[in-house]
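Exercise 3.2. Students should predict the tertiary structure of the chain below and write it as structure tokens, then compare their answer with the key that follows.

Predict this chain's 3D structure.
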Amino acid sequence: MRLFHLLTLLTGFLLASPAHAQWQSTTYTLKGGWSSIYLSGDASHAAIGDLFPATVTEVWRWNPNPNQVQFTESPLIPSAGTADWSVWRRGAPADSSFTEMIGRSAYLVKSTGTIADTYTVTIKQSPLPPGSSWVRNGANFLGFPAFGTAATAPTISSYFNTFPAAVAANAKVFKYVGGELGPGNPLLVFSTGSERLDRSQAYWFSAQVVENFYGPVEINLSNANGLDFGRTGSVITAKVRNRGASPVTLTFAPVSSEASPTGQAAITGPVPLSRRVFNPLTLLWTETPLGSGFTQVIAAQSTVELQFGLSRGAMNGGTASLYASMLRVTDAGQLMDLVLPVRAQPASLTGLWIGDVKLTGVESKAAGSTGTTTPEPFLLRTLIHVADGGRPTLLSQVFLGQLAVAPHAQGVCTQEALLKQDAKSSATRLVAAHLPLDLVGAPYSPTPPQQGVLLQPVLLQPITLTQPGSVIFEVTVPFNDPTNPFVHQYHPDHDNKDPRGDALIAGQESYTLVRKCTFTFTASPPAGSTVSSGWGSSVIGGNYTETITGAHSEEISVSGTFELSRASEVGTLSQ
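Answer key:
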């Protein structure tokens, strides 16, 4: 089975992402009485009472309901106790049905005073990918990522040019202007051709439509959380659709995050984004740092696919560090302005790695023989487990599945008996057949250390991905081991027994073999590698050398390269 197909069958153990990463503040203008706001990002890091000043006494969140429920009251007026609305009241926790403000949601805010009173409130949010669901006939309370400020934003009709049903003659649009609820609040928008779309407000749309429209350009990401690379991701795809009848020019520009609010993970720096472009001549992907950004022209009513990567080598913080930023997308027509969250953490090598050593060089001991290159590469399956503290272990076999010990979590073990007996059918066994059975090899470290020789594992530590180093494993195959190539239990010259059946010592019929295997990890793929992304996170490797003692009167050296792919992130190896 090819390695790619094998890895797709393995159980993944991914690290959990923090609840929030990048941050951006939005300022809202409130009037005395009732105002509406729209949160494009998540603000659940703080309680509602801490986000708003004391002048705000109530906050109502509209809950889109896909079941087309019938209203007992106008949807323009909040009604407690229904599925359509959740309410927060200051100083009345018993009367409040929610306490945090989530993103991509429309809210009604009640402030003290009259329509003549104006308040401003700035809310720090963690941006979310854009999204909108028109799920009701005649009742959608929504906001949109319009370009510019309230005074310079596009008109409603121009923004909805690619979705005219929402503002057609038989549809109505309402906005809240402050004061008590009644005939004048919310106010009917009489001219969508002159009314500007305020990105900070939420509007009622009374239209017989069901859609997912949020802007004239739609962006669908391969990761629902945005450009979230986590610890192991290397590529995220964005499918960008132009809904309009004319070509559109988009600008993609990186934006740094604000400082994290109290209680949230500190941000080490922006994510070093890159753009991946396929070269049809070389049939390879090239990655270019995003820098100040790029532009992309999209033809009318068509879709393009963009790919984004990152330079993990530039994230030189510890494994606990967090890199977060945003990618701003604007169009040349100044209709839409949105940000995509971007997040990554330095790769952790903790877990199980599987791959192959590709031997391409063998030292010949034949008289007059020159050169070491082999006609074809020879593959050696390789299994290395890296513990939580960074210590690597070379394995000849390993099992992945539910462990026998409670709570029967998915784990990595070296013996079948350590698996949950009635769950073995879903477990996976991996084997490196060229190594002695049940080998669990720690890094080789002679005593006393050999002067001038680096023998400690220096690369298999999470923060040294950009610093090449080596780890050495010494594999000993005793002269009487069944896996020793000199041993054959059915051949009298290779059974380690004399004619009387007494045991012989090493060197009489067979020899003890010592394989010193050196894995030199590199910050970039070695020559001949076809890996185009993920190096240092989901794929690691470099150069391989091995010296073999005992197979010949002289020491034999072989060499090549190796690549390992992550099979699990479990750092505990059960033995």
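Discussion points: Residues 378 and 525 are 19 Å apart (CA to CA). Residues 1-19, 68-73, 445-467 have pLDDT under 50 and may be disordered.
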